[in-house]
Amino acid sequence: MRALIIIDVQKDFLANGFLVVPEGEKVIPVINNINHHFDVVVATKDWHPASHKSFACNHHEREVGEIVEVNDLPQILWPAHCVSNSDGAKFPEDLNTKVIEKVFEKGTKEDVDDYSGFFDNGKLNDTGLHDYLQSKGVKEVYVAGIALDFCVKYTALDAKALGYKTFMIEDASKGINFRPNDVQNAIIDMKVSGIRVIHSRELEKVF
Ligand code: VGL
Ligand code: ZN
């Protein structure tokens, strides 16, 4: 069985959101066009409490973009984003959400961030995504969404490490480039780990 995991396609990462990912909205039509290729379609949502330690505003005299330590893990400080139940945490209206059978929330604990759809950054808790995919007999995982150089990348790396045949759909994903070349480097890291980086048009040929 083949699964599409749609990562964090949420209003706060799109134009006028709190953590805008350049061209983020471009992933929406691509994802809408490919979802029929998959047996299982699931999504993740970044879903932070307002007190989350990844937000610069929750640290004394710290600014967005600084890197601090939170519970022994390096933490990039972001603008407040994807606060649980807020408008910015919603899916955009033009994303076809009817095909999404389950949503996995991530980053829900105040003191640890979660870039992967599977585990938090300390690998202490899991989101239930792996168990769900196992229960559906999924062997192949296709990852797409936002941000290519953060949550898409870490989800794909964990999927590969968990034993799934793993693909990342490049034109269905957009990155932040927090540091110059982060997107380019993320693609290299994924390829080196054995993840196949593909274009959505290749799905037409295969299935
Ligand atoms: C993300 C930064 C902070 C992501 C989430 O979805 O890639 N990036 N929170
Ligand atoms: Zn976040």
Verbal overview:
This protein is of the alpha/beta class and 207 residues long. Helix content is 22%, strand content 22%. It is built from five helices and eight strands, in the order βαββββαβαβαβα. A six-stranded parallel β-sheet has the order 5-2-1-6-7-8. Strand 7 (165-174), helix 4 (182-192) and strand 8 form a beta-alpha-beta unit. The longest helix has 14 residues, at 148-161. It is globular. The chain binds pyrazine-2-carboxylic acid and zinc ion. It is an enzyme of class 3 (hydrolase).
SSE blueprint:
Elements: E1 2-7, H1 27-34, E2 40-46, E3 67-70, E4 73-76, E5 102-106, H2 129-135, E6 140-146, H3 148-161, E7 165-174, H4 182-192, E8 196-198, H5 201-206
Parallel strand pairs: 1-2, 1-6, 2-5, 6-7, 7-8
Antiparallel strand pairs: 3-4
Helix pairs in contact: 3-4
This protein binds pyrazine-2-carboxylic acid (VGL) and zinc ion.
Summary keywords:
alpha/beta; six-stranded parallel sheet; two-stranded antiparallel ribbon; 5 helices; 8 strands; binds zinc ion; Nicotinamidase
Strand order within the widest sheet?
5-2-1-6-7-8
Strand content: 15-25%
Structural class by sheet pairing and helices: alpha/beta
Count of discrete alpha- or pi-helical segments spanning 4 or more residues: 5
Average per-residue pLDDT, rounded, comes to: 97
Helix content: 10-25%
Low-confidence parts: none
The number of distinct β-strands equals: 8
- The oligomeric state of the chains shown is single chain
Kindly provide the radius of gyration, computed on alpha-carbon positions and rounded to a whole number of angstroms: 16 Å
Give the helices and strands as they follow along the chain. EHEEEEHEHEHEH
Q: What is bound: which ligands?
A: pyrazine-2-carboxylic acid, zinc ion
Characterize the main sheet: 6 strands, parallel
Outline:
globular
Distance between the termini: 12 Å
